[in-house]
Amino acid sequence: MPTATRRACVVTAFVLACIAASLPHARAFESANVKEREDEKTSTSNKVELRSFFDARDLSAHALEQSSHNALHRIDGTRVNAVDGRVLATSGFEIRVNASSVASGERVTVTVSSNGNAPNATFAEHWIGAYSPAGADVTRTAPVKYAMLTNVTNGEYERTGSGSAAFDLTTHRAETYDFVLFATRMSDLSETSAMAIARSDPVKLTNALDPVWPRVTLPIGWNGGSARVTWQSGRNASHGARLMYRVGGGSYTRVPASTTTYDERDLCGEPANGFGYRHPGYIHSADVSNVRPGDVIEYFLQDFHVTSDRFEMKMPPGEGPDARVTLALFADMGRGTSDDSETWRAYGRPSINVSAALAADALDEKFDAVFLFGDLSYATGFASIWDDWAAQIEPWASKVPFISNMGNHEMDYSSFPDGRIADLYGGRDSGGECGVPATRLYPTPRAGPDSDWFAVTFGAVRVVSMNTEVDFSPSSPQGKWLERELSSVDRTQTPWVILGGHRPGIIDSTDGPDDRDVVPGKRNPSDLSVMDELQRDVWPLLVKYEVNAAFWGHNHAYQRSCAWRAIGEGLFNASNGCVAYSRLGSDGVAVYDKPGAPVSLLVGTGGAKHTRNGVGHAFTEKAFYEFGYVRLTAHNRTHLYGEYQEAGSGYGDVLDKFMIIQPVRVSTTGDEDEAVLSARLERALSEVKTWRGAATIMAVFVCATFGIGAFAMARQWKTESTRHRFSILTSTMDDGAL
Ligand SMILES: *[C@@H]1O[C@H](CO)[C@@H](O)[C@H](O)[C@H]1NC(C)=O
Ligand SMILES: *[C@@H]1O[C@H](CO)[C@@H](O)[C@H](O)[C@H]1NC(C)=O
Ligand SMILES: *[C@@H]1O[C@H](CO)[C@@H](O)[C@H](O)[C@H]1NC(C)=O
Ligand SMILES: *[C@@H]1O[C@H](CO)[C@@H](O)[C@H](O)[C@H]1NC(C)=O
Ligand SMILES: *[C@@H]1O[C@H](CO)[C@@H](O)[C@H](O)[C@H]1NC(C)=O
Ligand SMILES: *[C@@H]1O[C@H](CO)[C@@H](O)[C@H](O)[C@H]1NC(C)=O
Ligand SMILES: *[C@@H]1O[C@H](CO)[C@@H](O)[C@H](O)[C@H]1NC(C)=O
C-alpha cells in the first residue's frame, strides 16, 4: 500500500508539474565568474608613434580582458567622435554598398574611396562599422561587426586610398543596415579616439522580421515522447507564430507557439543593457508531441506572413539498457565567420569550422543529441553576437536535441537584482547578461530559471547537467538535487551516467589560487581553487554513485584523465587520485576496464582560442590543443566508447579513442515485470497529446497508478527501484522552481 500511495502522489505531482510548466513562464534564470587565462595579451600596433583606436593601452583593464573574448569590447563608445551621433561631414571620404536591398544572411561588398585625400600612414587605422538598423548613434550603440580596411585588403587600402570589405548581413530584426567609416584621431596624444568620417546609404533587408534559427530543445519533464522547437522572429505574439510538422508522410499538425522576450530591464549591467544592447525580438517555442524514438519530423516555422524553409529533426533513441546512442559533447564555442569582419579574427573563428563539422555529422546521423557545457556564444553583453551564433549553429541545432548549461561568460556578473541568485565568483564575465539571454534563447529542461540543473536520458545514457557558477555544496539546492538525482538512477535500465559542468573538476592547469584577484565575499575563481571545491563537494558523489565520466570546459583544451577518486585536498596529483589508467589496445583505443571511478574529460574545444595552462600532470593521459568535440557512444550496457573528432581544420582526424567497460548490473530490488510496467507507463505518458487537458490526464494517470500499484502489490514488490523515473520531477517540485 505505501508503495502505491507514494507512486500516486509522485505521478500526480508530475502531472501538476507539467501543467504548471505549460503555463507562461515567470521571469527567469541563473547566475556565475572567472576570467580565463588567455595567453593572448591583445595585439598592439607595432608602428612607431601611431596609436590605434583599438590600442590596448587605451582600454580599461576590464575592457581589455573582455576584448580577449569578444573584439566588440574594443570599441569604447565614449571614445567615438561624432556630432550628435552623426557622421562628421568634413572629409570627402565615400563609403558605398554594392546593393540596396538583400535577403537576410546575404553578403554585400562595402567599398571606401578617399576621393582625393592623399593616402598616408593614418589610413592604416581606418575601419568600417556595420550598424543595424541604419542611422544608429555610433556613440551609444555598438556596431554589429567591424572590419579593418588595411587588414582586409592586405595593405592596398593604405597605399591607394580605396578598398572593399565583404559583410554577411545577419538579421537583427531591423529592416536596414548601414556602414560607417572611422578614422583614428591623432591630435590627442594621451588617448586615441575614433572619428566617424563617412556613412553609407541604408541597405534594406527584405525578410528581417521572419522566423529564423530553429533549435530543438526539450521541455521540463521530458520523457522521450516530445520535443520543443524554439526560434526567433521580429514579430510579437499577435502575429500567429506556430510550428507546422509531420512525422513521415503523415498529415501536418499545427501548434501555436508560446512567445516570450526580454529587454534591457532584465539585464544586469553594461554593455548588455547599454552599448551592446539590442532587442532580442520574440522567442517562440512549440512542442511536437506524440512522437517516438527514431521518428524523423519534418517541420516549418510559420506566422501570419510567411512559412520558413523546411527543417528536419530526428528523435533520439528511447531509454533502454542496450539502446545504442551517440552524443556530441563540447564546451567553449564562440562564433566565427567567413566574411571580412575583424570581430572574430582573434577569438572564436575556428568555431565556424567546428560548427560545420557538427553540421556534417548531424546530416550523416552520426549523433543523436548535442550537449554544450557552458560558454556558448561569448556575446558577453553584445546582443548581435547571439544572433550570429544562432545562425551559425542552426544546421545542427535544428536537427537533434540541443541541451546546454551556463558558463562564466553567460552567467557571471558583479551585481544581480533582488530575487535573483548571484554566481559564486562575482566577476563580470557575462558582460552584464547575468544568464538572461542564454536561458531565454536556449531553454533546456533546467529545474528553473535560476536553477540551471537537469538530467535527461538518451538511450542507455543518463546525462546529468550541473551549473558550476552557483552553489554546489552538499547543503545547497543544487547539491541536494545532485545527490537525489545520482542516487535514483536505475542502472539496470540506464546503465551509463555522465555529468557535464562548465568549470573543471579535474584540470591540469597552473592557474592557481595565489595569482588571482578575488572579489570580496566571493569565491576564488582560479582553476585550482574551483577544482578543489568540486573535488570536495561533487567528486565524492560521482564516485559513490558510480558515474562513468565527467565532462568539463572552461579551459580551452582537450584533456582525458585517469579514473579518479579524490583523496585529501588541494595540490592534486596522480599519486593521490588515480585509481586506474587506461590500457592502449592494438586498435588504438584506450580501454578503462572496470575502472571503479569516473574518468574525467575536458573538452573546452568548441572554437574559442586555446588556453595553454597545462603542465603535463600524470593524471592526464592525453592532452591536445586542437579544436573539436567528443562523440560518445553507448554501444550497449557494458561498453561506452568515446572519440575526439578534430574539427578546426575542416573535418579532421579522430585524435583520441577511449572505451569504458563496466560490469553488467543485476537488479537487486526489482524484477522484469516492474521494468515492463514502468516502460508502459512512460509510453502512455508520451502518447498523451498535450499536457493542457489537465483533468483528463490527471484522471487517467491517477487510475493508471492505482492499477499498477495494485498489480505491484500482488507481485510483492520490495521498494523503490523505479524511483529514478520521477526523481527529476519530484526534485523540481521540492525546489519550488516552477
Ligand atoms: C555584392 O558583393 C557580394 C560579394 O561581396 C556578392 O556576393 C553580391 O552578389 C554582390 N551583390 C550585387 C547586387 O552585386
Ligand atoms: C592623413 O590623411 C588625412 C585624410 O586626408 C588627413 O586628415 C591627415 O591630416 C593626414 N595626416 C598627415 C599626417 O598627413
Ligand atoms: C590586422 O592584422 C594583423 C595581421 O594579421 C594583426 O596582427 C592585427 O592585430 C590586425 N589588426 C587588428 C586591429 O586586429
Ligand atoms: C505587436 O506588434 C504589433 C505591430 O506588429 C503592434 O501593433 C502591437 O501593439 C504589438 N502587440 C504587443 C502586445 O506588443
Ligand atoms: C601528491 O599528493 C600527495 C598528497 O597530497 C603528496 O604527499 C605528494 O607529495 C604529491 N606528489 C607530488 C609529486 O606532488
Ligand atoms: C557490447 O559492445 C561491445 C563493443 O561493441 C561488444 O564487444 C560486446 O560484445 C557487446 N556486448 C554485448 C552483450 O552485446
Ligand atoms: C574554417 O572555415 C572557414 C570558413 O568556412 C574557411 O575559410 C577556413 O578555410 C576553414 N579553416 C580550415 C583550417 O579549414
What does the model show?
- The protein is α+β, with helices and mostly antiparallel strands and 738 residues long.
- Among the domains are: 87-205, Immunoglobulin-like; 318-661, Metallo-dependent phosphatases (Purple Acid Phosphatase, chain A, domain 2, 4-Layer Sandwich).
- Helix content is 20%, strand content 24%.
- The strands form six sheets. It has an eight-stranded mixed sheet, with no helix packed on it. Strands 22, 23, 24, 25, 26, 27, 30 and 31 form an eight-stranded mixed sheet that branches. Strands 1, 3, 5, 6, 8, 9 and 10 form a seven-stranded mixed sheet that branches.
- Helix 1 runs antiparallel to helix 13 and helix 1 crosses helix 14.
- It is globular, with a radius of gyration of 26 Å.
- Mean pLDDT is 85; it is low at 1-5, 8-48, 682-703 and 714-738.
- Residues 117, 120, 122 line the site of one 2-acetamido-2-deoxy-beta-D-glucopyranose (NAG).
- Residues 357-558 form the Calcineurin-like phosphoesterase domain.
- Pfam families: Metallophos, Metallophos_C.
- Residues 597-656 form the Purple acid phosphatase C-terminal domain.
Architecture per CATH nomenclature, i.e. the level-2 architecture of the domain at 318-661: 4-Layer Sandwich
Q: How far do the termini sit from each other?
A: 30 Å
In what range is the share of β-strand residues? 15-25%
Q: For the record, what CATH class of the domain at 318-661 applies?
A: Alpha Beta
* SSE class: alpha+beta
CATH H level, superfamily name of the domain at 318-661: Metallo-dependent phosphatases
Indicate the CATH topology of the domain at 318-661: Purple Acid Phosphatase, chain A, domain 2
Q: Biggest sheet, strands in spatial order?
A: 21-20-19-32-33-34-29-28
Mean pLDDT: 85
Low-confidence stretches: 1-5, 8-48, 682-703, 714-738
Helix fraction bin: 10-25%
Main sheet?
Answer: 8 strands, mixed
Each distinct ligand: 2-acetamido-2-deoxy-beta-D-glucopyranose
